[in-house]
């Protein structure tokens, strides 16, 4: 930590604080929106070197704190960001609840110090990677974020580490702020967000402007403008917004594109990526796409989105990224191209080289033929590597399609029953050889705990490494959180650094299990395991994602050697992981089904082996012969990074019948549903002055803010058309293509007509057309009603026509709900009974032994020390009980963690050796404190206890309780937390 700098006087201009600058004759679009503004503080920041960390934190605190902070800023001059932030936290009396590993994973300030140093040495390219002065480092890993509030102000969030992207690496993390628009504003407020985000956003005099919007986020760029005393000025060392746009996607060189398609490609510079090698410009070439022409003269691009790379490049990537093997394929961005690059072992060249498919992979033209390209464009931006995930999963969309095309409904019912049985059996088998090892492994698998641990420590490159955190799907931003809070919170799902208690259920169960506890002898463990089981049963009852053991998912790529016949694929793994009736193999041969998400029409194809393709592993190689590319049939997919699922389970494959080809073609009348926005970039350039171009381009760059909910609306209408009209009904077929066209509308220029949208929305109203399998709880309450009152109107509930027969998802849900409830009752009755469990003598012994010895010796000092420990434990318990009130479980995970951590920190803080007369070391104090907490919980919690045990001792001292148990059982092995978190039980011992 950097030492605090001595205070020295600062000269500041006279005048009232927080004075609003005069706007003079500024136009509406030039009226600034202030992210942080105070003339005095701004003058200080512009004249002396105060670290950016302080600028950001002062802005986050808000104007009500400016008067107090203004006089303290001198203390941070010339400090590093890391040191200044640490001192700032101390000055603001903010005690941290984070572990050191947690800090390292999310704290941005050390990383920002490194980034500033790199840009100081090379102002243009210091952060793009491949920097000899900073080997194995690249910039752009710091996230600056804000959230739009209901009053249309911006609340700045805590700065964190996050994934890097090309734009942040090139211009620095401090040049970008990402603004989130909460759903309650985005979907439910009639606001012209495009006009709002055209305003300049001022942060301590620096001007940010919006350059792109996607989903719920708007991205701001730090321009060459400054705002002082009510006037805009120029900063000579930064680019204006239009010049930044020219770097990202030059309008003049791409003027023959539709403006909507041109604007969508701005997303390429924002893709989460890791820089790979920087290529020589001559080593980036193009090769033509393979085009197939059908009998009807329809063209199909058989290689759409996938180019090739030579072995030399793949070796450099392996060594630079630290991979164990040479990757067969990877998803990337480079030189204005995007998509997959597949290893071509026949390309014999010692210099790292690649070829992009033209035209399918060429998205942005950066230079004219004789010009040199910006080094950032020559750097390979790596997104993902090819890998196989097995087993694959069946989504509801795939199940509906398979059943419609011949797979018996009973098979899916049996599948759901078996999934439920396997789950319950794996989590309730507590007796027999290796029972606890098998239970540990089953619990780990339910939440992919090991992968989740790696994911939370790899916030900057977790996607490239293939880590997956299942909890992320369940994480929601707490939009109702206290907006005035600026303390540093814990990160979701990290263990408590003081008590050692993990946050997730599964990880807690594993931690207690591997300390030697057994569920039948530990009510805390039994309860946690019960919660895991209940969560997983409810997940099966509601999510409808069943694992198919004989299936796998991987990237799809084209057959670059042209050896596969029509309707053939080649699928080989780098490991023997494909389960078949005869064992595990690395190659699939025979009839298979192939599908992708979103699923429209799975295809029945044949998997074959070919020697020319033997080196292409961990990808699904698809034929380039035949009238159309295979992924055309799978929801109009392509090869730029689409994953497909291959199923070789013959119970599914044999009864399946391929759907009619007409379902893979757009229906008649589709074009009549849309208006075509066909303005070209050239129209904007030719019909506007340079000074006006930015404003007109922003209309497209921010265009997604105008219609945020249409994709979801049309997808919902399609789901209801399938349910009430039938899967093969022309209306359902048409809505499937309406949905995909709307989804692609930002690039294609197709905008759904207002009357068409209104017609579909009215016809398939959510209240009138409920989906039983999706909205079971709502429908149960009105099952026998024909009408229901909603929003001051009477709604007629539509019924699924009897002639359509039972809907497959209704059938599955009825089965899973029935089985799930029965299993929960059975598990509660037969397995999770804590009333007969006796107190754990191993945990009681440390306190009982010392108390017994003290009583026998009549040692007043020893007894007073024990009473001091006991008094402290009881005091913390009272505070703990208050925090664990009825609303505790409704809090966001981060705030629940913070409450528990504040208690555990107080629990572990007292007494110290100097507070005691006989006990002279912290380890003994910790052991006695934990043991007494357990003793108190078992014997002394009257009268407020309603059950025989609580979570209190475990939430306060789980690590110490586990240590007591391990020592009692013996033999044992000490391990650091870092080593432990990488342990995983072998499948076969």
TrEMBL record:
InterPro entries named among the record's database cross-references: RDRP, RDRP_core
Catalysis performed (reactions): RNA(n) + a ribonucleoside 5'-triphosphate = RNA(n+1) + diphosphate
Domain of life of the organism encoding this protein: Eukaryota
EC class name: transferase
Molecular function in Gene Ontology: RNA binding; RNA-directed RNA polymerase activity
Alphabetically ordered keywords of this record: Nucleotidyltransferase, RNA-binding, RNA-directed RNA polymerase, Transferase
All copies of domain RDRP core, residue ranges: 153-790
Enzyme Commission designation: 2.7.7.48
Region (Disordered) residue spans: 1-25, 470-495
One GO cellular component term: nuclear RNA-directed RNA polymerase complex
One family name in Pfam for this protein: RdRP
Keyword RNA-binding: yes
GO BP: siRNA processing
Homology family: Belongs to the RdRP family.
Identification of the protein by name: RNA-dependent RNA polymerase
Source species: Tetrapyrgos nigripes
């Amino acid at each position: 930590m950097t030492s605090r700098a001595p205070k020295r006087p600062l000269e500041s201009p006279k005048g009232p604080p927080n004075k609003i600058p005069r706007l003079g004759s500024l136009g509406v679009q030039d009226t600034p929106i202030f992210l942080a503004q105070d003339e005095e503080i701004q003058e200080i920041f512009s004249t002396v070197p105060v670290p950016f960390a302080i600028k950001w934190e002062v802005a986050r605190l808000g104007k009500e704190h400016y008067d107090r902070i203004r006089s303290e800023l001198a203390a941070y001059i010339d400090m590093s960001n890391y040191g200044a932030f640490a001192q700032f936290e101390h000055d603001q009396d903010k005690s941290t609840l984070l572990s050191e590993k947690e800090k390292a994973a999310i704290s941005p300030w050390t990383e920002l110090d490194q980034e500033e140093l790199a840009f100081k040495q090379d102002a243009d390219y210091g952060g793009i990677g491949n920097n000899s002065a900073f080997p194995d480092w690249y910039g752009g890993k710091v996230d600056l974020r804000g959230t739009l509030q209901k009053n249309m102000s911006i609340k700045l969030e805590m700065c964190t580490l996050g994934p890097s992207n090309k734009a942040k690496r090139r211009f620095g993390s401090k040049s970008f702020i990402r603004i989130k628009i909460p759903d309650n504003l985005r979907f439910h407020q009639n606001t012209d967000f495009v006009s709002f985000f055209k305003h300049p956003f001022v942060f301590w005099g620096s001007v940010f402007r919006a350059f792109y919007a996607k989903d719920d986020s708007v991205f701001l760029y730090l321009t060459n403008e400054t705002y002082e005393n009510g006037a805009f000025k120029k900063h000579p060392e930064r680019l204006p917004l239009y010049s930044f746009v020219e770097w990202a996607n030059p309008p003049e060189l791409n003027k023959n594109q539709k403006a909507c398609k041109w604007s969508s490609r701005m997303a390429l510079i924002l893709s989460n990526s890791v820089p790979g090698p920087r290529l020589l410009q001559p080593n980036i070439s193009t090769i033509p796409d393979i085009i197939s022409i059908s009998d009807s003269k329809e063209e199909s691009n058989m290689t759409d989105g996938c180019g090739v790379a030579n072995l030399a490049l793949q070796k450099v990537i392996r060594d630079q990224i630290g991979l164990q093997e040479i990757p067969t394929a990877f998803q990337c961005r480079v030189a204005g191209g995007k998509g997959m690059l597949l290893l071509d072992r026949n390309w014999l060249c010692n210099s790292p080289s690649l070829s992009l498919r033209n035209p399918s992979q060429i998205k942005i033209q950066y230079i004219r033929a004789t010009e040199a390209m910006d080094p950032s464009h020559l750097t390979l931006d790596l997104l993902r590597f090819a890998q196989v995930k097995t087993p694959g999963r069946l989504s509801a969309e795939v199940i509906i399609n398979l059943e419609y095309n011949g797979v018996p409904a009973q098979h899916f019912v049996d599948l759901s029953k078996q999934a439920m049985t396997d789950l319950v059996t794996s989590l309730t088998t507590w007796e027999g050889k290796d029972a606890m090892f098998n239970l540990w492994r089953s619990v780990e698998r339910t939440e992919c705990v090991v992968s989740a641990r790696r994911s939370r420590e790899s916030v900057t490159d977790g996607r490239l490494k293939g880590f997956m955190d299942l909890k992320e799907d369940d994480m929601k931003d707490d939009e109702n959180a206290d907006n005035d809070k600026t303390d540093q919170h814990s990160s979701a799902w990290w263990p408590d650094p003081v008590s050692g208690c993990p946050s997730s259920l599964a990880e807690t169960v594993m931690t207690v299990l591997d300390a030697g506890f057994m569920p039948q002898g530990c009510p805390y463990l039994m309860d946690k395991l019960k919660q895991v089981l209940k969560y997983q049963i409810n997940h099966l009852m509601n999510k409808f994602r069943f694992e198919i053991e004989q299936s796998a998912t991987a990237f799809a790529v084209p057959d670059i050697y042209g050896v596969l016949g029509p309707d053939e694929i080649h699928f080989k793994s780098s490991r023997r992981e494909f389960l078949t009736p005869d064992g595990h193999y690395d190659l699939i041969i025979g009839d298979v089904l192939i599908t992708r998400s979103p699923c429209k029409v799975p295809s029945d194809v044949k998997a074959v082996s070919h020697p020319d393709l033997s080196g292409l592993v961990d990808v699904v190689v698809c034929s380039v012969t035949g009238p159309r590319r295979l992924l055309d049939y799978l929801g109009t997919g392509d090869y730029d990074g689409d994953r497909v699922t291959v199923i070789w389970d013959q119970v599914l494959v044999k009864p399946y019948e391929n759907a009619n080809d007409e379902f893979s073609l757009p229906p008649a009348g589709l074009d009549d549903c849309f208006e075509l926005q066909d303005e070209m970039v050239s129209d904007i350039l030719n019909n506007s002055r340079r000074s006006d171009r930015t404003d007109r381009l922003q209309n497209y760059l921010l265009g997604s803010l105008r219609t945020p909910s249409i994709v979801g609306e049309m997808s919902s209408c399609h789901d209801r058309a399938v349910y009430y009209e039938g899967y093969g009904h022309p209306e359902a077929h048409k809505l499937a293509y309406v949905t995909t066209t709307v989804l692609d509308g930002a690039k294609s220029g197709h905008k759904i007509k207002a009357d068409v949208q209104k017609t579909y929305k009215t016809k398939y109203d959510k209240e009138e057309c409920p989906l039983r399998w999706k909205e079971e709880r709502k429908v149960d309450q009105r099952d026998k009603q024909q009408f229901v009152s909603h929003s001051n109107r009477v709604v007629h509930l539509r019924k699924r026509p009897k002639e359509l027969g039972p809907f497959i998802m209704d059938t599955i849900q009825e089965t899973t709900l029935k089985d799930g409830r029965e299993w929960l009752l059975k598990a509660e009755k037969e397995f999770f009974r804590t009333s007969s469990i006796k107190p754990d003598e191993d945990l009681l012994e440390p306190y009982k032994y010392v108390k017994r010895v003290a009583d026998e010796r009549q040692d007043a000092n020893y007894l007073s020390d024990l009473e001091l420990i006991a008094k402290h434990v009881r005091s913390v318990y009272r505070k703990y009980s208050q925090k664990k009130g009825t609303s505790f479980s409704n809090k966001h995970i981060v705030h629940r963690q913070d409450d528990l951590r504040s208690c555990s920190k107080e629990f572990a803080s007292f007494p110290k050796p100097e507070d005691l007369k006989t006990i002279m070391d912290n380890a003994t104090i910790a052991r006695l404190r934990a043991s007494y907490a357990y003793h108190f919980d078992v014997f002394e919690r009257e009268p407020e206890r309603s059950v025989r045990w609580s979570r209190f001792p475990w939430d306060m001292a789980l690590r110490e309780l586990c240590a007591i148990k391990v020592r009692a059982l013996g033999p044992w092995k000490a391990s650091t937390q870092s080593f432990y978190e990488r342990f995983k039980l072998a499948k076969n011992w």
